[in-house]
Structure formats: C-alpha cells, structure tokens
Amino acid sequence: MKVTLVKPCWTYPIDRGDSTYNRTWPPLSLLNCAAILRKQNIEVDVIDASAERLTPEQVAAKAQHSDMIFITSASLDRWQCPNLILKPFLKSVFALKRVHPNVFVMGTHGTVRPKSILDVTGVKAVIRGEPEITVLKISQNTPFKDINGLAYYENNRYMQTPDPEDIDLSLMPMPAYDLIDINRYNYEILGGRFALLEASRGCPYSCIFCVKSMYGRKFRVKPTEQFIAEIDVIIDQVKARNAYFIDLEFTVNRELVECVCDHLIKRRTPITWCCQTRADSVDLPILKKMRKAGCQVVHFGVETGSEKIRQTLHKGITFTQVEDGLLNAREAGLQTVCFFMFGLPGETKTDMQETIRFANRLNPTYASFHIALPYPGTEFHENVKDVLGTELFPNAYTGEVPYETLEKLTRQAFRKYYFRPRYIAGRLKDRDFSTFFRQAKFFMAYLKHRLWS
Questions:
Q1: Which of 74, 87, 92, 188 would be 108's cystine partner, CB 3.0–4.6 Å?
Q2: Around 96, how many Cα atoms within 13 Å sit in the side-chain half-sphere?
C-alpha cells in the first residue's frame, strides 16, 4: 500500500478576491498523517505543491502511481482561517481524479460543508474533522460505514457517519518532517528553516467568530515530555532555526510553557520561536522567561476597539487586560502582532474607527486588519446566516455596512497604522536591520494588496 498526501498550490502571496496571505508553512496535518501511516508500515509521500510551486498537472503526475491520494483544502496552519477561494484546490482535485480513482478530501471546508464539497469535487469520500485516524483507517481498507468522520455516496445515496472521536494527542508520533525540505519554509517575521509544532488542540474559550470544527470537541494538551522531545527533534535532526508553536492559545497551559522554556534555556539552543495567545493569559514573568528561551514574537487576537462590539464576541477579555498584556510583552523585549476585524454583527463605521484608534494606541510591532469572515460552523455564521445569501463560504457579513465600505475602512486602517511617524520612528529605533528589511519586504507585499488592489 502506498499513500500520497497532497497540499495544493495556492496563489502566492494572495489570491485575487481573497484576503488570506498564503505563507509557505509546513503542512503539519499531513506530516502527522504520514507519521501515523508509517507507524503501521504504510508507504507514504507528501507533496506540498505550495512549497514546490507545482501545477495541478505536476501534482497529478507525481501522485498517480499511489494506491490512495488524500488532498487537503486547509492544512493545520489554516484550520482556523481557511482560504475562501477554492479554485486552486479544486483544480488539483480534478487533475488528480483524471489520473486516479481513489481520491479523498480533508480539511475545514469539507468538515463544515461535507455534502457540498463531496458534490463539487466528486471524490470517493470527504473526511470531516481531525484527519489523522480517519486517513489511517481508509488506508487500511476499513469499510466506510465503520469509519467515523466520513461523508460519501453509496448507491447514489448520501451517507454521513458519526463525528470522529477526539484524538489522544499522547499517541501522536513525531510529525514526519523528513518527508519535506525544511529549506522551503519560512515565516517572514522570523526567518527560514521554519517548522510548525502543536502542543495542544482546541481552545477553552467560546469566541463567536472562531472556527474550531477541525479541533475536536475538547481542549487537549500533549504530555510535556512528548512536546519537548518533538522540539528537540526539529532542532537536532530537522535543523530548524525558527518555529511557530501553532496552538490556538499556547500559554493557557502555563505549566507546559514553563517547562518548555526551562528546557530551551538549559540547552542554550539558538532557535527562535513564536506563538499565539491571549493578552490575559500572560504576565511579565512568563513573558520574560519566554524571551530568554528564544521567543521573539507573540500574536494576540484583539479583534475590536469598540466596547459595544467587545461585549458581543464572548471573548471574555477587557481592553485593560489587552493593554496590560501588550505592555508586558514590550517590557519583556518581545515583538507583537495584533489582529483586528471589521464587519462583525452590529458593528458600525463608528465602531470600526474606534478599532483603528485602539490599534494605534496599542502600537504593536505589527497590526493586521481584516474583514470578519462568517465561517460556517461558528456562532457568527449562525447568527447572520439568514442574510448571507447562498454562497458556500461568504466573504463578509454586510448587514450593517456594505462590502465596499468594509474594504475601504480596512485599507484606511492599514494606512493610518503603518504610515504614522511614531510607528516608522519606532521601527527604525529598534536598529534590528537584519530582520527589519526581511519583514518590511513581506509587509510591503501584503500592504500593496490591501491598500491598492
């Protein structure tokens, strides 16, 4: 048995009509699947068409001699914020189907819209939710009816098995990083030879806009020793220089973070890393320890600067806590990235201007402004679905503000933020020119799309 796992090539850096920046990051969910398959003596290949810049036809030529092919519409780094433009994914699916009968789809899109994705792709089955165990069972020729997390047709009748069980993360092997070339991956803020690792899945919070359909029903954490062993492998064997611990909320489990930092400090390893967390989940002592352990950047989801809108998001954090978290990160010597959204339910242009002012007051190293996406499977989508129309994956909620205005305000937010004399002077004052120009190149490419497209 030979299995091929495929990540299609998305338009780089941004597809026209989509606001998702398509970074070249490792396909972690495919590497997890590959590791599990190999543990059962199943031969496996990983084709990352995005990293290799392969056309659909080239992908099909490389995969055609496998027994089964699995293609993802959203690898792990995109589980929470998948691309809305499906054309690159669909082109690869159709190219694979032309050369092979056994093609399966996994990812966020098929999880939240299984029948629609099954119909539009015409594949043998769609995998819903966490894919690793489901991919293994399909590869072992388990009957579809006995596999949780599947959608398929049987005798022209649509079938959907029960949701998959949450994966026990302690049983997950080390991701199969030897199947990809680490030199192909980078994060512009950190640098090249870039790896992704996850210490947990899910999130204990209930923000209305967050897509958690791929993460199972419960918040789960890997054993600390297991995660530290994975870090050692990416440093010693994979030779990664930079890493993103891709958890939705990395510092929620403080004990794990403390142990990871202690380990990295003790081994004095020159690896740079970043994470995403909440501003109320960190304080100055843990941030200082993270910085000493090699953390360089912390990502915070701020979302809004409007008190009215904040109360509707079920995020459970105050603006004072956000400001304190950013202040502590800055004092610890960390760079910060803050994310903001426009077009949330009940939000007016006045609320959006409050968000722009709040972003300027917070003054993170980087601020990212996006139109809020009502992903299926979220409370946001459920609350506004009656006015969204018939699109499978709508690109905005426009109940209060037209789409053109949302676009205009998003561009305005970028201009007001990045063209401030205070911001420009602060970045030049950092004098970290080795990273400044690399990061500036990335952000200019992004700003070019957001400001003038």
A1: 74
A2: 32
Strand boundaries in 92-228, DSSP class E: 103-106, 125-127, 150-154, 157-160, 186-187, 191-192, 194-197, 200-201, 220-221
Q: Give kind and range of the element (H or E) at residue 33.
A: helix 28-39
Which residues is 3 bridged to in the sheet? 44, 68
Question: Which amino acid is residue 202, in one-letter code?
Answer: G
The rounded distance, in Å, linking the Cα atoms of 236 and 305 is: 43
Residue 35 phi, psi (nearest 5): -65, -40
In a 10 Å sphere around its CB, with 0-12 CB exposed, 13-18 middle and 19+ buried, how is residue 380 labelled?
buried
Token pair for residue 89? 């994914």
pLDDT digits (tens, 9 = 90+) for 355-378: 999 999 999 999 999 999 999 999
In eight-state DSSP terms, residue 353 is: H
Domain architecture of the chain: domains with CATH:
2-160 (3.40.50.280), 181-452 (3.20.20.70)
- DSSP letter for each residue of 375-408: -TTSHHHHHHGGGS-S-SS-S---SSS-HHHHHH
Radius of gyration of the chain (CA): 22
Phi then psi dihedrals of residue 68, to 5 deg:
-145, 150
Burial class (CB in 10 A: 0-12, 13-18, 19+), 17: exposed
Reported as a single tens digit per residue, the pLDDT across 275-298 is: 999 999 999 999 999 999 999 999
List phi, psi (to 5°) of 380. -55, -55
Using DSSP bridges, classify how beta strands 191-192 and 186-187 pair: parallel, antiparallel or unpaired: antiparallel
